[in-house]
């Protein structure tokens, strides 16, 4: 049997932009992507702490060490600049493997979106 478990989580980052006219996705600082083991094009779930919105999109790599967290396309309507969000991805794995799996959990500075 396979189950879906949390693979990666970037906990509480500040939205730095919302671009309605860009093709859909979320742009994430490359440093945060690497720390959370996310790749460009990967499906992610977004939870907006400020308004309770939950939605899925995919990752676009942002400039390294920029702190960039920008929601693009229709997802831009679900956030405001300055909102705090949680970004999660999931993986399918065997039930027994999942018992020992440890996800990549990242807790950036909420003010700067940096890891320091």
From TrEMBL:
Residues annotated as binding substrate: 57, 73-75
Family according to the record: Belongs to the PanD family.
PTM text: Is synthesized initially as an inactive proenzyme, which is activated by self-cleavage at a specific serine bond to produce a beta-subunit with a hydroxyl group at its C-terminus and an alpha-subunit with a pyruvoyl group at its N-terminus.
Gene transcribed to yield this protein: panD
InterPro entries linked: Asp_de-COase-like_dom_sf, Asp_decarbox
Protein name (record): Aspartate 1-decarboxylase
Cofactor binding note of this UniProt entry: Binds 1 pyruvoyl group covalently per subunit.
Family annotation (NCBIfam families): panD
CDD domains cross-referenced by the UniProt entry: Asp_decarbox (cd06919)
Subcellular localization: Cytoplasm
Cofactor: pyruvate
Complex formation: Heterooctamer of four alpha and four beta subunits.
Organism for this UniProt entry: Flavobacterium paronense
Major site of localization recorded for this protein: cytoplasm
Active site as annotated: 25, 58
Associated pathway: Cofactor biosynthesis; (R)-pantothenate biosynthesis; beta-alanine from L-aspartate: step 1/1
Domain of life, per lineage: Bacteria
Pfam family, one: Asp_decarbox
Purpose: Catalyzes the pyruvoyl-dependent decarboxylation of aspartate to produce beta-alanine.
